[in-house]
Structures are given as structure tokens and as C-alpha cells.
Design brief:
- The complex is a heterodimer of chains A (379) and B (354).
- With 379 residues, chain A is mainly α.
- Chain A is built from eleven helices and seven strands.
- In chain A, the strands form three sheets. Chain A has a three-stranded antiparallel β-sheet.
- In chain A, helix 10 runs antiparallel to helix 11.
- Chain A is globular, with a radius of gyration of 27 Å.
- Chain B has 354 residues and is α/β, with parallel strands linked by helices.
- Chain B folds into two domains: 216 residues, D-Maltodextrin-Binding Protein, domain 2 (3-Layer(aba) Sandwich); 98 residues, Periplasmic binding protein-like II (D-Maltodextrin-Binding Protein, domain 2), CATH 3.40.190.
- Helix content of chain B is 35%, strand content 17%.
- Chain B starts with a helix and ends in a 29-residue tail after the last helix.
- Classes of the chains: A mainly alpha (379), B alpha/beta (354).
- At the A-B interface, helix 1 and helix 10 of A face helix 1, helix 4, helix 5, helix 6 and strand 11 of B.
Chain lengths: 379, 354
């Protein structure tokens, strides 16, 4: 009897379960649509083409541009936090994590205080402190400070010197890219030579000397393709250099510091998780302290650290939504702003969820690829 | 094992059947009015950061013009001005809170606009306050008109009509909007000089100005520019599709205006013993009927016959509410202007009560 066959029944059960799940989702969806219609709220996405009606700080955004452009602008602003924040928090976190294991009492304790303070404060509070207690008390734009003559410090915008491209900058970048590839080739060549003959490789010296040489040579041959531009305040706006809004700086610094405290703990834990025998074996081989860390302990600790590290990157990305508290126009703020201005909440929230989902899945995919490549190959 | 699986299949099938057969379509709905009477409490969505309109004072009590209208609705529907739970909302949360049924009525200086009426599932009722948008700057700044404010940063609350009006008015004037979703954070930014101007409804600006701490120069440190660049009719809002509840709230608001027109005040409304038939009808007192007896007028709003007595007895008439919270003798010092009775050249015009 086929209907008494366990194999068949299992398949049937799966099919029914999937059908039930879809039926449930369909029910929720229909419920939503029916209720929205009953209240006279639209259910489509046509509104994305209507004008946003608001301007956004720190951009050339015009009120007449459509809602979807303002969402894209929010995505761009969120990305600006992620792209700068993730490398910063990784470096700070790893350094602090290693410092917690230092044999120097002061370094160790200072790192502990950093971690234990920041890790135990809600990120929103860290952002509010950074904004209200650190950035707002800075001088106003009319009395902006110019420390060292190259920075602009005010509570509206902060400016740093930046390189502006001139004629020939594209060519220069192309030359640099080619030089980078060649430098990598030199690295491989020196390594191979070392492997076959045992002569010192000096690969760092060789490739960096080549890169710097080409860089300097091309710079003068092409004729100053980049120029340093210094920020200055003109008519209450920072022109030249690279300017960042106070809210951006507050969110970036606060969240990077906060997340770094978690990364520090991951780093410390991962180093401690490398079996003690490995260190002892390295000592038995008479490796120096640096060699021991560089070739034995850290590569293994790194492998352990990557999966929990992904989590911190994701947390950072999701926490950028707290920028709404200090008026940084990231994607959550612009979405809520649009909702407040009469665009339908269910659709907007759906889009917002989709945006964060894409962010998170992309980051985990990237780090997972890295993770797979770094794991031990076992046969 | 097989038994378990069969059981699972049956259960899932039942769930699926239940889901697909459930009809979520709109059935005949009970009015919110009945629910509120049964619940014995009104849920009112308010502001908590605008002095004079909706504000939490140092004792933790809500007070203000909008708050008084919440109390008026509670008094009219439930007979008790204190049977109200205030739900502080941000500008962005308010319509979602209304749509989702988290609140019964929204009285949170909300501007009546066509698109809000049309696509937010909201029904706007009688305007309680005719307002307009203005710009507040520090008194020591050089700005006299909006045209002077090129390249300035302007603080604005996010998700408000104010924000839209600002973008429209500054169409050809370059500016940077600093949008906050919370009045307190916006205030911090303004105090620190992060923005040069603060734009909002003029009444709100007056409220903020009146409450400006002496440590920061007191009200004299701030100046509101003359130009008014928008129309902002503010009033209570209810959900679409419940006309009975909408009517009830509407007529409670109208009752306060009607009360002022009749000269009824918080002090004398309960003890009215005159023989003006219109007033007696309004107060639910017996009036002579055509058959020689007496009758109590019931307009069929689903409210108690004496709701006007309860409302005015609780919060006073419109003029009293205005004077107590925002009038010339308060820190806000707003004159009646458009908000005066029609008989005094204002826009407050109650429809006939008959």
C-alpha cells in the first residue's frame, strides 16, 4: 500500500507543510491588503515615482526628485558608514584585543577599561553621548577652529584635507593599478626564489620599493595628477577638502568604538583558543616572539575569529539605523521621513527590510567566501 | 512513526483549510464609540514636547491645548475628563498609531492636508487651531527675512508638513535641512548653534520660545520672523470608516466653541437656569415640545444628552481652553486672531445645534 509507505508519507508531509506555510503567508498578505483597502490606503508601489517633497542635508538632493531617489540616497549614506566603519572597527578591535593580552600592566588595564565600558553601554546611548556631549559643544561654524591650519572643526561640519583629481588622474590611477599587479608578481617571484634557493627573499622590500618608485616617477612624469585641497569655511559652508556632517561623525565614531569593543573580545578569545601546545612548539623551534605570533598563533586565531566577526559586521550595519536619533540621513531616517510625509508605511517598511536584508546577506556572503578559503583543507 | 506523520499531516491540513477559508474581509463593524464606553477609557495620541499644546510638566502631568481637547472628548463620551490615557507620539509615528488602532483619536497639532485625508486612512475633524508656519532665529543673528537665510542650516522636525513647506518656500534659497524625529534632540542642536533657524508652526515656536531657559538668555534671546509661509489648520483626527465615532468627537469639539458663543463657561454651565431654548437644547435640558409636554433633544450622536455640560464643565469653553493654555496671559502670549469666534472676526463657527 503506497499510502502506508513511510517514504511516501514523508514527502506528502513536506508538501503539505510547505503548502500550509504558503497558505499562512497568503492569509497574512490578504489580510494586510484587505485592511489597507478598507482604510483607503493604496497597496501598490507607484508612489515611488512621486516627488519626495523634502531636501536632505549633505547632498544636492532636490525636493522634486522622486521618493525612490531619496531611498537610494539613504542607502548611499548608510553605505558611507559601513565602508568606513567596518575597517576602522576591525583594526581598533584587533589592536585592543591583543592589548588585553599584553604583558604590560598599563596597556592591559587600559584595554580592559575600554572594552568593559563600551561593551556594556547600549549603542544608542554611545551615539547620543558622542553627538550631544562631544560634537555639539564644538564651536559653531562662524567660529570654526582650524587646528594645524589644515583641519576645520565646528559642530556643523568637520573638514579634512583631501586629494582632488586634476588632468591625467585617470592615467595615473591606471599606472598605479598596473604597478600593483607587477608588485604582486615580484612578491611571488621572490617567494619562489626563496623556496628554491633559500636565499633571503626580502619580498616586502622589493615589491614596496617598486611600487613607490613607479608611483613617484609617474606622478612627476604625468605632472601632478592630484592636488591637495584644504578645507575652509566660506559663507557657513565648508568648501574644499573633504567635509563630514557632525551627525555622520557622531554615528561613525560611536558605533565603530562600540562594535570594536566586541571585536576586541572576539580577538582575545580567539587567541586564547589556540592550543597552548602550539605556542610551546613554536618556542621549542626557537621562533622569536614576533615569529610565534605572526606564523603560528595569529593565523590559527584568525580562523576561529572569522565567524563571530561576521556577526559584529552585521551588527554594525544594522545599528547604523540608530543614526536616526541624531538626524543622520541614513536609509531608516529617510524611510520614516517619507512615511511621515504621507507615503504608505507597509510598503516603505517592506523596502527598508529588503535593503537591510541585502546589506546583511552581502556582507555574510563576502565573509563566508573568505572564511571558506582560510579554513584548513582537510582530506 | 507513521502514525505521528499522519497526525502531523492531518493537523497541517486543518491549519491550511482554516487559513484559506477564513475570510478577513470587512464585516459590519461595531463603532469605536461603543468599544470606548465598554472599555471606560479613551486612548489619545498626543505630543509631549510642545509647551502650551502638549507637554509633560515637571510633575509628570500632561497639560496643554491639545491635552484639554483629549480630556473634553473623555468627558463627553465617558463623563470623566480623567478617563483618558495619553500616548505620546512622534510626528512620524502618529498616523501609523492611528491606523493600527493603538489610539482612538489623534490630537497632536496635526495639519489637515488633502493627501493625509486621502491616503493615510485618516478623517480630519473640526479645526481647533488655525496656525501657520514661521521661522525662529537667535535674536543676535542678522536675519530679518527668509531671503536673508541663504546657505544656513535649518532645524526641522522630520515627517511633518513643516518639512514640506520649508522645501517649497526655500525652493530658490540654498539651505541645509537638519531633520530630527524628536523635538528635544532638535532643541539641543539649535541651542548648540548647529542650525541657524528653527522652523515650525508659529504657535509651537511661541511655546518653545516662552519656555526658553534663562540660562540661555530666556525668551528674549529668540526672535520669530514676521513671515508666515503656510496654512496649518490643526485639529483632531480619527480613523477612516467609523463615522459614528467621528461625529461624536467632532461635536464634542464643536460644543466647546458653541459654549463660548452661548456665553457658557466652566463655572456657570452646570447651573444654567435661564430660559433660552437653544441653550437648553444644547445642554440637554427639557424643552417644551409641540404636544405641550417637554422633551430632551437628542441629535442621535450616540452621546449622553448632557454631554455638553460634562465637556464644558470639565475643560471650559473654547475661549477658556485657549486662554488657559496659549492665550495672551500665558507665557506663549498668542492672541486669538483667526481663532476667535466668527462673531469677533475669527474662523470659529459652530454649525447650528438643532
Amino acid at each position: 500500500m503506497w499510502w502506508r509507505d513511510v517514504g511516501t508519507l514523508r514527502i506528502v508531509a513536506q508538501v503539505v507543510a510547505v503548502a500550509a506555510a504558503f497558505a499562512f503567508l497568503g492569509y497574512l498578505y490578504r489580510n494586510l491588503v484587505t485592511n489597507l483597502r478598507a482604510q483607503g490606503i493604496g497597496t501598490g508601489f507607484e508612489f515611488l515615482a512621486r516627488p519626495a517633497g523634502v531636501n536632505v542635508a549633505g547632498s544636492g538632493f532636490e525636493a522634486s526628485q522622486p521618493v525612490r531617489s531619496v531611498i537610494l540616497l539613504g542607502v548611499k549614506n548608510t553605505l558611507a558608514l559601513v565602508i568606513v566603519g567596518v575597517p576602522v572597527l576591525t583594526v581598533v578591535g584587533v589592536v585592543v584585543g591583543i592589548a588585553r593580552l599584553s604583558s604590560n600592566w598599563l596597556v592591559r588595564k587600559a584595554a580592559s577599561v575600554y572594552v568593559e565600558t563600551l561593551r556594556n553601554i547600549p549603542p544608542l546611548l554611545v551615539i547620543l553621548i558622542a553627538f550631544n556631549a562631544v560634537l555639539l559643544p564644538l564651536p559653531t561654524i562662524d567660529n570654526a577652529l582650524h587646528p594645524l591650519g589644515v583641519l576645520v572643526v565646528s559642530n556643523r561640519e568637520l573638514g579634512v584635507p583631501w586629494l582632488v583629481p586634476r588632468e591625467g588622474s585617470g592615467l595615473y590611477l591606471l599606472v598605479l593599478t598596473v604597478a600593483l599587479v607587477l608588485a604582486a608578481g615580484i612578491w611571488v617571484w621572490r617567494t619562489r626564489r626563496f623556496d628554491s634557493t633559500g636565499a633571503p627573499h626580502h619580498r616586502v622590500l622589493w615589491s614596496s620599493a617598486f611600487l613607490v618608485g613607479v608611483g613617484i616617477g609617474a606622478y612627476f612624469l604625468i605632472g601632478t595628477p592630484f592636488q591637495v585641497s584644504l578645507p575652509e569655511v566660506r559663507d557657513r559652508i565648508v568648501v574644499g577638502g573633504m567635509a563630514a556632517r557632525a551627525s555622520y561623525v557622531a554615528v561613525l565614531v560611536a558605533l565603530a568604538m562600540y562594535t570594536a569593543s566586541h571585536v576586541a573580545e572576539i580577538t582575545r578569545g580567539s587567541i586564547l583558543a589556540v592550543p597552548k601546545g602550539q605556542t610551546e612548539a613554536a618556542n621549542a623551534l626557537a621562533l622569536t616572539r614576533f615569529q610565534r605570533l605572526r606564523f603560528v598563533v595569529l593565523p590559527q586565531a584568525f580562523r576561529i575569529a572569522i565567524p563571530p566577526m561576521i556577526n559584529q559586521f552585521l551588527n554594525f550595519t544594522k545599528n547604523t539605523s540608530l543614526g536616526i536619533a541624531v538626524g543622520y540621513a541614513e536609509v531608516t531616517l529617510v524611510t520614516f521621513q517619507a512615511i511621515g510625509n504621507g507615503y504608505p508605511a507597509p510598503q516603505m517598511i517592506l523596502i527598508l527590510m529588503g535593503v537591510y536584508l541585502v546589506f546583511s546577506l552581502t556582507i555574510s556572503a563576502l565573509v563566508n567566501i573568505l572564511n571558506r578559503r582560510l579554513q584548513f583543507v582537510t582530506r | 512513526m507513521a502514525k505521528k506523520i499522519i497526525l502531523l499531516v492531518v493537523v497541517l491540513a486543518m491549519v491550511a483549510a482554516a487559513c484559506s477559508s477564513t475570510d478577513s474581509g470587512a464585516t459590519a463593524q461595531k463603532s469605536l464609540l461603543d468599544d470606548i464606553v465598554a472599555r471606560g477609557k479613551l486612548l489619545c495620541g498626543v505630543n509631549n514636547a510642545v509647551p502650551g499644546f502638549g507637554f509633560v510638566d515637571s510633575a509628570g502631568e500632561f497639560s496643554g491645548f491639545d491635552i484639554d481637547f483629549c480630556r473634553a472628548v473623555a468627558a463627553g463620551v465617558l463623563g470623566d475628563p480623567n478617563a483618558v490615557e495619553f500616548k505620546p507620539l512622534t510626528a512620524q509615528q502618529r498616523f501609523t498609531a492611528l491606523q493600527s488602532g493603538e489610539i482612538d483619536v489623534l490630537i497632536r497639532n496635526t495639519t489637515w492636508t488633502a493627501s493625509r485625508d486621502g491616503s493615510e486612512g485618516a478623517t480630519f475633524l473640526t479645526t481647533t487651531f488655525y496656525d501657520g508656519q514661521g521661522m525662529m532665529v537667535r535674536d543676535d543673528s542678522s536675519y530679518q527675512t527668509l531671503e536673508d537665510m541663504a546657505n544656513t542650516s535649518i532645524c526641522v522636525l522630520s515627517g511633518t508638513t513643516t518639512e514640506l513647506n520649508l522645501a517649497a518656500r526655500f525652493n530658490s534659497i540654498p539651505y541645509t535641512p537638519l531633520t530630527f524625529d524628536d523635538n528635544d534632540q532638535l532643541r539641543n542642536a539649535f541651542v548648540a548653534g548647529q542650525c541657524d533657524g528653527w522652523t515650525s508652526d508659529k504657535s509651537q515656536l511661541a511655546g518653545v520660545r516662552s519656555n526658553w531657559p534663562d540660562g540661555e538668555g530666556g525668551p528674549a534671546a529668540l526672535r520669530i520672523l514676521d513671515e508666515t509661509f503656510s496654512k496649518e489648520p490643526l485639529g483632531p483626527v480619527v480613523r477612516d470608516g467609523d463615522s459614528k465615532w467621528a461625529d461624536a468627537v467632532n461635536w464634542i469639539v464643536i460644543a466647546t466653541i458653541q459654549g463660548e458663543e452661548f456665553g457658557l463657561t466652566q463655572g456657570n454651565v452646570a447651573s444654567y437656569s435661564g430660559d433660552n431654548v437653544e441653550i437648553k437644547r444644547f445642554l440637554g435640558q427639557p424643552t417644551p415640545s409641540s404636544d405641550g409636554g417637554t422633551t430632551v433633544f437628542d441629535p442621535g450622536l450616540g452621546l449622553p444628552a448632557d454631554y455638553a455640560v460634562k465637556v464644558i464643565g470639565a475643560v471650559g469653553n473654547y475661549g477658556e481652553i485657549f486662554d488657559r493654555n496659549v492665550g495672551p496671559d500665558t507665557a506663549l502670549g498668542i492672541s486669538r486672531g483667526l481663532n476667535d469666534l466668527w462673531t469677533h472676526g475669527g474662523l470659529m463657527y459652530p454649525p447650528p445645534y438643532r
